[in-house]
Write a structure and sequence with these properties.
This protein has about 475 residues and is α/β, with parallel strands linked by helices. Helix content is about 35%, strand content about 15%.
Length: about 475
């Protein structure tokens, strides 16, 4: 008899959601994690000064509120509190200007001037669909699909390249820049298909649920999941590195919150040769170069509205953002990278002692890059926030190699668990209607290398857990 119903390898958000889902269904569950603390991409630590809490990877969580998996769990009762900034997102431009994405669609459109009508026509039908649309996008592929009308409307626009859609729809730097920054979260060239879909989804979520941060740091998401898991009898063992499936205790199901490269290393010859070859062909995307700052004051944005947002996109016009992301896809390092900035302490004072502010930023770089882009990142912020450099007390820098040491799923600094282009959007990590299953009986995948991909939403783990429960009612 198996000692456990399920063992989950990896305590990132997907692994923890899988474990919680199984434990709440009455299964005996153990989670094993190589790091000394659960969380994966949601860990928070003191990187610069004592008492200053930095999110090492994920920092802002629209999908944390939109995800069917996470919003169905009683995480507030286990210590998770969401903090909503006054404005979900600002996209800064030269001349002290900024495009602001407000919770209100109308207020956003009004602020975009000549592009307001185009923005409203583009987003209003999606916002009207509500969470039915995002639920459909995060659900497994079914025939017929859930919410077919909303998905068809989204797909008609979302399958396009973001650059083509933006050039056709928008005439100003405000409208084009705002949409380009949203779409750049795809970590793809904005000329590629499906990048418009990323921009549409993130823009829609800004209006529906906002772009919140977790009070006290993203670690609180993982801590709440661990607390809920334990409340249902599950266990988490950290500091336990697994080199082979043979090292795991006997269980009826094993779920791997790992990318294909680690799965192959862990499972070895247990995997059929054809499946193993398919996993070996899985493509990883660009990495990130990240800088964390302890500051002696808020970032002095030239555009006053930028101080009202927790997330600030720094990169200028549509043309500039598109050129920067295209350079990365071609293996280059743009002089003016597109930079994602988060200023959480402006809305969550628990992140730092009085008089100290937290800054978080990264840009995209080729996978495995060893080029230090710290100076270019800081120059971009200084461009839109003169005097920023004078406020830096301490900085902490992590290139792709450091990101991978922090979380081995970040292969070459890829924080999305694999390239999310059109091919790997529909075949992740291999083609099939049940990609969370492997050909090995009782072995499942639950990482962001499975649908619906990267982001702190837990849906990859939720889908994998449902596969286990369907096979073991």
């Amino acid at each position: 008899m198996a000692e456990l119903d399920a063992v989950v390898v990896g305590a990132g958000p997907n692994g923890l959601v899988a474990a919680v889902t199984l434990a709440m269904a009455g299964r005996r569950v153990l989670v094993v994690e190589a790091a000394d603390r659960a969380g994966g991409g949601t860990r928070s630590v003191e990187l610069t000064l004592p008492g200053v809490v930095h999110d090492v990877c994920s920092a802002v969580h629209p999908l944390g509120l939109a995800s069917p998996a996470l919003r169905s769990l009683p995480l507030a009762g286990h210590g998770l509190r969401w903090v909503q900034p006054e404005v979900p997102l600002a996209h800064v431009l030269d001349g002290g200007r900024a495009a602001l994405l407000h919770r209100s669609l109308d207020e956003t459109a009004e602020g975009l001037g000549a592009d307001g009508s185009a923005y409203r026509r583009l987003l209003a039908p999606l916002v009207a669909s509500g969470l039915d649309l995002s639920d459909g996008l995060l659900a497994p592929l079914t025939v017929p699909p859930r919410h077919p009308v909303a998905l068809a409307r989204f797909g008609h626009r979302g399958v396009r390249s973001a650059a083509a859609l933006a050039r056709r729809r928008f005439r100003t730097d405000e409208g084009g820049g705002l949409f380009a920054g949203l779409a750049a979260h795809s970590i793809l060239s904005l000329e590629e298909p499906v990048t418009a879909g990323y921009g549409l989804l993130l823009g829609m979520l800004g209006h529906l649920v906002g772009w919140p941060v977790a009070e006290g740091g993203s670690q609180r998401i993982a801590d709440a999941l661990v607390s809920l898991l334990r409340a249902h009898g599950g266990r988490v063992e950290c500091g336990r590195r697994i080199a082979s499936l043979d090292e795991l205790p006997r269980a009826r199901a094993v779920l791997l919150d790992l990318t294909p490269r680690q799965v192959v290393a862990l499972a070895g010859d247990r995997l059929p040769a054809r499946y193993r070859r398919r996993l070996a062909r899985f493509g990883y995307g660009p990495g990130v170069h990240k800088v964390d700052w302890a500051l002696d004051g808020p970032i002095p944005w030239a555009a006053p509205g930028a101080a009202r947002a927790a997330t600030v996109h720094v990169g200028g016009s549509l043309a500039e953002v598109a050129a920067a992301e295209e350079a990365v896809q071609r293996g280059g390092h743009p002089q003016r990278p597109f930079v994602l900035v988060v200023q959480p302490s402006a809305f969550d004072p628990s992140r730092a002692p009085a008089g100290v502010h937290v800054g978080w930023a990264y840009c995209h770089v080729p996978n495995g890059s060893t080029v230090d882009l710290t100076e270019r990142i800081e120059a971009q912020v200084e461009r839109f926030a003169p005097g920023f450099r004078d406020r830096i007390l301490v900085r902490h820098v992590m290139g792709p190699a450091a990101m991978q040491r922090h979380d081995e799923n970040y292969v070459g600094g890829d924080i999305n668990g694999g390239r999310a282009d059109l091919r790997q959007f529909v075949a992740r990590p291999v083609p099939g209607l049940h990609p969370w299953r492997t050909p090995v009986e009782g072995l499942y995948l639950c990482s962001s290398s499975t649908p619906p991909g990267g982001g702190v939403h837990g849906m990859c783990g939720w889908h994998a857990a449902q596969e286990v429960l369907r096979g073991d009612p």
